[in-house]
């Protein structure tokens, strides 16, 4: 992997989604329990931890069986149906194994309840009700547009981010690259290479046929995972900055413990997207196509 050096010119920004442009709102277990309650299944607050652990185990299980949200094998909706319903089953198994009596554990869903609960959860997590945009996300995208910089998403999430969640949060990047469509996930180089090609396509789609294709070293990727975002982007010869948004007291000059680890490992680290602009300004980075 080439050493991380400051970019001279940025012609495209690419982003991770959750933790970079948007944050998850609320608690996953609470969302699942509320959706179940609205379908006639009572789950009291004492079961939320089991639901969340059940979800994580079910997610890993479903991902192992059907990587990249099923790729070309099954639809995203069928992938999530398997994962969501398995989450309730695993949560119940965990509580029974911990000694809870049958009637005290997470309820077993009937066949009718399964479909109704799944549809409610799938709809809720495909909307903006469980996500919010960070305050700096839209201003940063406007900054990019004013400076003629292409913006795109590189995500290991499914296509609902690009189709519904981000538009409902008023986030409109120029392109969306998801792991399901490409058949691989970050940090695999292929998903970054697909983004590089798409960024150049956006230039020509915008009617600018006088520019040369965008080169990897003219793209800055922004994310919050060292392996998936920093190592993945750098292996694709792109620039990368990690966002350290979630420190316990993340207002001074110090990083969170994880952010400090990223910095010590050689990654440029910013507190937020405004900090990214400051970093690039200090490095005299130019934006947009060469004149």
From TrEMBL:
InterPro entries assigned: HAD-like_sf, HAD-SF_hydro_IA, HAD-SF_hydro_IA_REG-2-like_cap, HAD_sf
Signal peptide as annotated in the record: none
Gene3D superfamilies: HAD superfamily/HAD-like, Haloacid dehalogenase-like hydrolase
Gene Ontology molecular function, alphabetical: hydrolase activity
Keyword Hydrolase: yes
Keywords of this entry: Hydrolase
UniProt KW Secreted keyword: no
Protein name as catalogued: Haloacid dehalogenase-like hydrolase domain-containing protein 3
Organism, scientific name: Pycnococcus provasolii
